[in-house]
Amino acid sequence: MSRFRQFLAVDWSGAKGARQKGIALAFADGAGGPPVLVERGAGWGREDVLEVLRTDLPQDTLVGVDLGIALPHADCGAFFPENTVLLPDAPALWALIDDLCADEPNLGAQPFVDHPDYCPYFRDGTLTGAHFRCDRADHGRGRFRVTEHAQADMGCKPYSNFNLVGAAQVGKSSLTGMRMLHRLRGQLPVWPVDPKPAKGSLLVEIYTSLAAKEAGRSASRAKMRSFEDLNAALAALGSPTVSGEGPIDDHASDALLTAAWLRKVADEPQRWAPQALTPQIARTEGWTFGAL
Q1: For a tag site, which of 15, 35, 252, 260 has the least CB within 10 Å?
Q2: In angstroms, rounded to a whole number, what is the distance separating the alpha carbons of residues 138 and 93?
Q3: 257-282 as b/e, with b when 16 or more CB fall inside 10 Å?
Q4: Which domain of life is it from (predicted)?
């Protein structure tokens, strides 16, 4: 029997506004059956997701959220080298971001990336900050966490969480997500910053492209924009398929496939013990569940 009863995948978004069309939620029941999209008439906002995780989460749910739960640390020995504020771990980073953005609605994070102490670490489209790269990073794409190097070794195409530019940027979504994680502190553990509990619900970072790759799709074809493509990927994971034909929103398909993938791999011991995950990396950078 699985350690978890339910599997919730959240495709997250860092876009501005009270509602984000890029947010999608899907559940997969541990007892089996096709994954199910969680509809919300007015669309989802980040604070709506926070409320679900706080008050409406089924017992023993493994929650996967598609965002980076921390910033790079191991490459330079600090989240923000050259800064006088030394943060000991990821929860301290979450608290800092939420504090500096306290007046920003919808869990927005713009005040943080605009702050003169922190904007030099980001690339925002008009400016590449002086500290966007670390001297030890030589791939030219900004700083990576150890888990992002592991993703790349698996054939994925990760982006730096300090990158705020382009359709594939993950910086804004990760920073807004860190505000949510701070507000969940003490209510929902976050692996591997927190140890995996013997019972109860748990949140992990996911990368939907990793789930798609393990369902037989290449990194360049990770997005599924038709029910036919989604159902072929679900079948490859051994999951029952969903009803529908023709086009499907790729945020919905990402959530549906990843919920089924979480159900398939959650009890594989190696997923919880990647070789490069040390206690120091766990508490500072975190990890992407499933990256080996």
Answers
A1: 15
A2: 25
A3: bbbbbbbbbbeeeebbebeebeeebb
A4: Bacteria
Give the integer Cα–Cα distance in Å for 207 and 129: 26
Q: What is the pTM of this model?
A: 0.95
What is the spatial distance between Cα 261 and Cα 8, in angstroms, rounded to a whole number? 10
Cβ neighbors of 151 (< 8 A, separation 6 or more) are 158, 207, 210, 288, 291
- Where do the structural domains in the chain lie, given as residue ranges? 6-69+183-272
Report which of 15, 75, 7 is spatially closest to residue 43, judged by C-alpha positions: 15
**Residues pairing with 128 in the sheet:** 123
Cα Rg of the chain (Å, integer): 18
Name every residue whose Cβ is closer than 8 Å to that of residue 272 and which is 6 or more positions away in sequence: 191, 196
Residue 34 to residue 262: CA distance in whole angstroms: 13
